[in-house]
Amino acid sequence: MEGSPHAAFGRPAEQVGHRFVFSGTAKEYFGIWIVNVLLTIVTLGIYSAWAKVRRNRYFYGNTALADGRFDYHARPLQILIGRLLVIGYLIVYNTLLHFVPLVGLVLALVFLAAMPWLIARGLRFSARVTSYRNIRFDFVGGYWGAVRAFFLSSIVAGVSLGILAPFASRWTLRYTLGNLRYGGKVFSPDPTIGSLYRVWVLPAVLTVVGLLLFGILIAGASAGLASLREQASNGEIAFILVLYVLFVPILLIYAVLGLLYTAGVRNVGFSATTFDERHYLYSDMPRWSYAWVVISNLVVTVLTLGLLRPWAAVRLARFHADYTAVVFDGDVGEIFSNIKDSGSAVGSEFMDIEGIDFGF
């Protein structure tokens, strides 16, 4: 999408907005997916590293922005080594936990302390193996930033019963987007607390309403149990069945609420992010539509025993692309020519202990 960015994105008329475009199809991806699944099963999971590379190369290569495409450069052996290191550590941990519990506990604490480092390294790896117009991304976030963005934020949101979730979301956005680099140029997210609370209100209100309804249903079920006890000896079993029947829709409702908040945070975070202090990211994802796409994808995948997983993945990728854009200040060709001349963010020497593939 080009033109009229001042109307579509709220930016000055001299700036031009470009939508992301995803051109992959379910039919094409199905061929890649089915081979990945079969070979992963036959090799007892070893091929999963190669499967990840093939999948990402397909999705990245079919994602375009302003006539330029993305690419994925990870080598399967890197990913396999990273996974084997983590799996090996977990095997040693579980073995020692069984035979020498004290040492196993120490290893568990070491692993917990290492998690922020692993996340930061994983984000760096994911960025460095991604390119756009043959220019690599980079990620410069550190250990303590990851602690705040992923651990402290979760504690704050949980202890406050979700009331301080927008603050936690801003920490995460500032870490994941604020430490991202492209050709040495900086991404600068600056979401306001007010804008995050605006997307928080609807899920919060629906959560309170849901809790009240759930309380009423439980009270009704308890009253029914008392009546059943007088009529039959299996009243407890009936009560448990009622709880299960109630639990499924309640779980679905709260999954939808989480998706509504996630989409809202994405819109706020992207739309409050500048690149090189000139260009703007933008997201206008409809929240209810996003929740529908994710939930219906899950239902269709389960009902078809996974056979429509490729269709669901392509559908979600296209949905993300359709509602994401970049508003450029100036001629796109000249902008990227200048970035390329200033030097790529990362050369081919990104392998040291990389391979731990946490994604954005």
How much β-strand is present in the residues? 5-15%
| CA-based shape | globular
- What's the total helix number? 12
The main pleated sheet reads as: 10 strands, antiparallel, barrel
What distinguishing features does this structure have?
disordered N terminus, alpha+beta, ten-stranded antiparallel beta barrel, 360 residues
Short description:
With 360 residues, the chain is an alpha+beta fold. It contains 12 helices and 10 strands.
Account of the protein in words:
The protein has 360 residues and is α+β, with helices and mostly antiparallel strands. Helix content is 65%, strand content 12%. The protein has helices at 5-8, 26-42, 48-61, 76-99, 101-128, 143-159, 165-176, 193-231, 235-271, 287-303, 309-322, 332-341; strands at 16-22, 63-65, 68-72, 130-132, 135-139, 180-182, 185-189, 273-275, 279-283, 324-328. The chain has a 10-stranded antiparallel β-barrel with strand order 1-2-3-4-5-6-7-8-9-10, surrounded by 6 helices. Helix 2 (26-42) packs antiparallel against helix 3, helix 4 (76-99) runs antiparallel to helix 5 (101-128) and helix 5 crosses helix 6 (143-159). The radius of gyration is 24 Å and the shape is globular. The two termini are 25 Å apart. The relative contact order is 0.14.
